[in-house]
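User: Excinuclease ABC subunit C. Structure?
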Amino acid sequence: MFQPMTTEQLKLVWKNLPEKTGIYLFQGANNKPLYIGKALNLKTRVSQYVKTGDLRLQKMVSLAKDIKVIETGSDIGALILESQLIKKHKPAFNIMLRDDKQYFYVIFTKEKFPKIFLSHQPSAISHKPLTSIGPFTDGTALKTTLRYLRRVFPYCTCKKPHNNFCLNYHIGKCAGICCLKQQSRIYNFSRWQSHRGSSTKSGQLFRQRRIRLWRTISKEKEYGRNVKAVKDILNGEKTSLLKKLEKEMVALGKKEEFDKAIETRNKIDKIKRVFENASIIQNIPYYDISNNHNERALLELKKFLKLKQLPHHIEGYDVANIQGKYAVGAMVLFTDGKPDKSGYRRFKILNPKSETLNKFQILNSKFKTGGDVGMLKEILTRRFRHPEWSLPDLIVIDGGKAQLNTALAVLRELRIMNNELRITALTKDERHRGSKIFIAGKKNAIPLSRLPISVKNLLLQVNAEAHRFAIGYYRQLHRRSIETRNF
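Assistant: Predicted structure:
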């Protein structure tokens, strides 16, 4: 007879989970998966289900009889295995908690030089034949994976054929052969064949063109192998790909083509390295403090904000832009007082406002549109439309009264405001240092100097990390724009 886990059993299972990267499966009756997810830290991720306030997640947990985990050792391995298991088992709560438009698929067009790109709905692309691999749940990890694979196996993302080499060709991310519209006509071997028995000049021309043809055919074959390699990795066939590359390396060595053999060996090393590392996403530094210090800070924060429970999950938000250009938003997650990188999210602002806020607008609580406030409203709305992301215990926003009121309005509009969720906003002085804190439900701001030192430091750390993450994304977009213009 089916017996779901009690809360005590769930907590016991959670406490024994490894703090490693991998896949977790909530299993129901007959060991059928109810939900499948991935995490950089399995223990931290599953802990969010223990104290979730989301009714749908509570329902899922109440139906689970066990939690199974599979360690993968890397974020790429977890991403690919998660996709395979979701496709195989079609868990009910993966479907309920996400619609089709929230999953990611890698698209491969069926052309002479296949293009590779991402889509939420492959079925909506009807103008060209294609194949797809997916679904993938983590778009950020998938994009990072593809960026890394593209360095090892260059491929094309150009949507239309053109006569000039693209930027990606010049930076080594594209073979270049796919760029030229007239490629097949330029290297028409049957036409060159007529020059074989003609004059010396024509014969030289034939030989030159034959060399160019040979190089073109070699590039075509290499491009096909690159696309096949990307498919193999995303389909979880890493082992067979490595064996194939190792055989190729040995064969090249026997032919004394040592440069190509070394190049193949480098590819093998890069593939192995990325699957051995815990995450290919750059580690985000933070000031490491002891668990005792963390616990004391959380206890004092609970007391200061009059919370019913410890703020185990704190989310920080900030935006970055220059007069509306390259506008981005960032969300960071702190779990038990430490940054939890698996919960970091970046937002490219879809509707940036060019106007900036003046001092009156920042202090006026009725001002709720435009500038940083409008951008904050957008990223909060997008974030809280993800019911599968657990609700935080505390939100820390960079800004003042206007930003605080905007956050409250968004949560009320989405009907997810509750007494256990507290919202705060931190203002800065002229030197960009923390100055005051606004707390939802309190009329006046409180100087940070009046806060317990551990509470002040924790809030400032969350705020600084959100600012760093937002600025990093802004600089990335800005740098990319400059490189494109210069090219």
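The chain is about 45% helix and 15% strand. The radius of gyration is 27 Å.
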